[in-house]
UniProtKB/TrEMBL annotation:
Biased composition (Acidic residues): 240-252
A GO-annotated cellular component: ribonucleoprotein complex
Family recorded in the similarity comment: Belongs to the mitochondrion-specific ribosomal protein mL64 family.
Protein name: Large ribosomal subunit protein mL64
Keywords for this protein: Cell cycle, Coiled coil, Mitochondrion, Nucleus, Ribonucleoprotein, Ribosomal protein
């Protein structure tokens, strides 16, 4: 016994009668068996509970409610569609959605089936092809062979420039030892000059201290007078030496003359 018959039996005596009616009619008349069977099924369908009745509209609505309850992301429908890699809008929401650029973008992103766009829109029109050709003539006036020749020459110039630079560096590296020695000599000379200046200053400070009996700031005017006096004395001493040398030279001819006299 089928599930439907069990449900009809649980309904009561009327359902039992509806179960017996097809067998009785089939026993008395074979010609009216089909009609009796159809009427029994109609009565059974009417007596079934609502949950066992198949309704496409109710099933679709129930599935929609389930899907809405499963959506916990709180995203807008278009954003959720983009997340699942589907077309954001089923219908155009703005004039931008009707532009050729937007439709081509949808075809490239979601394919022919997912974008629901005529693929012929992806091909350029005659006007677009003409404008593109004119643009390429202006933007790229040279042929492929000419561009290859220019590129080859640019590479050769770059290699030659690098080679020249390497040769200059090699020549300078050969002179590196001499330059290092010259630099060290200049540094040593500067250090020697600085050391001599410091020693001269210390000597002058010591002379001033011996002259006055106490230390004087080098910025003091009295400190500036002592070096001038010292330089004058040195100049006088050098002058005296020059006079003595001159007298000796004069004495030699005098002796010669005296001997001659």
């Amino acid at each position: 016994m089928s599930h439907r018959q069990l449900l009809n039996r649980s309904a009561g005596p009327r359902s039992l009668l509806s179960l017996l009616r097809p067998s009785l009619t089939r026993f008395y008349s074979s010609s009216s068996s089909v009609t009796s069977k159809d009427s029994a099924e109609e009565v059974a369908a009417e007596e079934l509970p609502v949950t066992f009745v198949e309704d496409d509209g109710l099933e679709a609505e129930r599935e929609a409610r389930i899907q809405a309850a499963r959506n916990k992301s709180r995203l807008l429908p278009q954003h959720r569609n983009m997340l699942h890699n589907t077309l954001p809008y089923e219908q155009s929401q703005s004039w931008i959605h009707e532009t050729v650029k937007y439709k081509r973008m949808m075809v490239g992103r979601y394919g022919l089936d997912g974008s629901k766009v005529d693929p012929r829109i992806c091909f350029p029109t005659k006007q677009e092809a003409l404008e593109r050709s004119e643009y390429e003539k202006v933007a790229f006036p040279h042929t492929l062979q000419e561009m290859m020749a220019v590129n080859r020459k640019a590479k050769q110039d770059k290699i030659a420039k690098i080679r020249t630079r390497e040769e200059e560096i090699a020549k300078k590296m050969e002179k590196l030892d001499q330059w290092t020695a010259d630099l060290n000599a200049r540094i040593a000379k500067k250090e020697a000059d600085a050391r001599a200046a410091k020693e001269r200053k210390d000597r002058l400070v010591e002379e001033v201290r011996r002259h006055f009996g106490f230390k004087i700031d080098p910025r003091d005017e009295r400190f500036q007078e002592i070096p001038q006096e010292g330089e004058g004395g040195q100049a006088g001493g050098e002058g005296g030496q020059d006079d003595g040398e001159a007298e000796e030279e004069d004495g030699q001819p005098g002796e010669g003359r005296g001997e001659g006299g």
